[in-house]
Amino acid sequence: MPVPVTSSHRHIIRGDVSVKKYAQTMKVGNTTIHIIEPQNVTEEQQAKVLADFYRAGWAIVDELIANGRMDKDGNIVKGVKPKRDKPK
Questions:
Q1: Are 69 and 77 a contacting pair, CB within 8 Å?
Q2: 21 by DSSP, 3-state: which?
Q3: Cβ neighbours around 21 below 10 Å, total
Q4: How far, rounded to the nearest angstrom, does the alpha carbon of residue 4 sit from its chain's CA centroid?
């Protein structure tokens, strides 16, 4: 028996709600990326999120430098394999 197709398939929990306005739209290859601005976000909350992104990014850079995979100028060192933790 066929499945009725009267309503579109949307997962509200996942966030597939159709939105009319986008803050920004980008096209990368065949992929369209729509950026949706969050509502009711204070400037303090925005600053905290941005600081968290910077902190995470610099932690990655510091780790790459410590493992010898990046030099102090930010250049990736070729031929250095990443150090992996041994499985337990």
A1: yes
A2: coil
A3: 7
A4: 36
Burial grade of 65 (CB within 10 A; 0-12, 13-18, 19 or more): middle
Q: What is the pLDDT of residues 1-19, one digit of tens each?
A: 565 555 555 555 565 566 4
Cα–Cα distance for residue pair 31/1, rounded to 1 Å: 34
Distance CA 18, CA 12 (A): 10
pTM exceeding the 0.70 threshold for the entire prediction: no
The beta strands (E) that lie in the chain are given as 24-28, 31-35
- Give the number of other Cβ atoms within 10 Å of residue 22's Cβ: 13
Quote the tokens at residue 76. 């990736």
Amino acid code (one letter) for 54: Y
CA atoms within 13 A on the CB side of 88: 0
Residues 40-55: tens digit of each pLDDT? 889 999 899 999 999 9
